[in-house]
Amino acid sequence: MRLAKKPVYSMLLLLAAVVSLAACSRTETGDENFHTLAQEQIRDQQYFPGDLPIPEGAGITFTEGELIGGKKSSMLIYETEESMAKLGTTYIKYIQDKELDSNTEIVEQNNLILSGKAPGSYSYSIIGSSSDAKPGGAEIIVTWIEN
Question: What residues contact residue 80 under an 8 Å CB cut-off, 6+ apart?
Fold first, then answer.
């Protein structure tokens, strides 16, 4: 009877390993849907961090960087087909990895609102909403303002 259980136990371990590897593979593939802002070709001078994640295939519709009263501010607007859930997960991870303070974290099916600041440095907001003009698409507005 022990001989019969051993192959079943081995098969269960093998199945668990395969499922675990498949889950890791999906996570890595999901992250490949993003690159950094530094990899974008933006004409206007920007004050955003170069490692800010942007979805592959995003269409940047507006950029502006200003120096007002010695303080830097930037705005970036882009359109994407990426889901709010994936955008929210990616930006929340970015905020945590950069150890930024978070005041607001709202991620819903059709809306995204993230805001906070880096103590003594800058304030940020990332706001997104589903596009009425392009079903399945979203418009994201990112602002970075020096404190």
Answer: 55, 57, 58, 59, 87, 137, 138, 140
CA 142-123-72 angle, to 5 degrees, is 80
Tens digits of per-residue pLDDT, 4-63?
444 433 333 333 333 333 333 332 324 568 988 888 877 665 788 888 999 999 999 999
CB 144 within 8 A of CB 95: no
Of 46, 47, 50, give the one whose Cα is nearest residue 37.
50
Contact 145, 129 (CB under 8 A): no
User: Are the C-beta atoms of residues 37 and 54 closer than 8 Å to each other?
Assistant: yes
pLDDT of residue 96: 93
Would you say 133 and 126 are in contact if contact means Cβ atoms under 8 Å apart? Answer: no
- What type of residue is 30? G
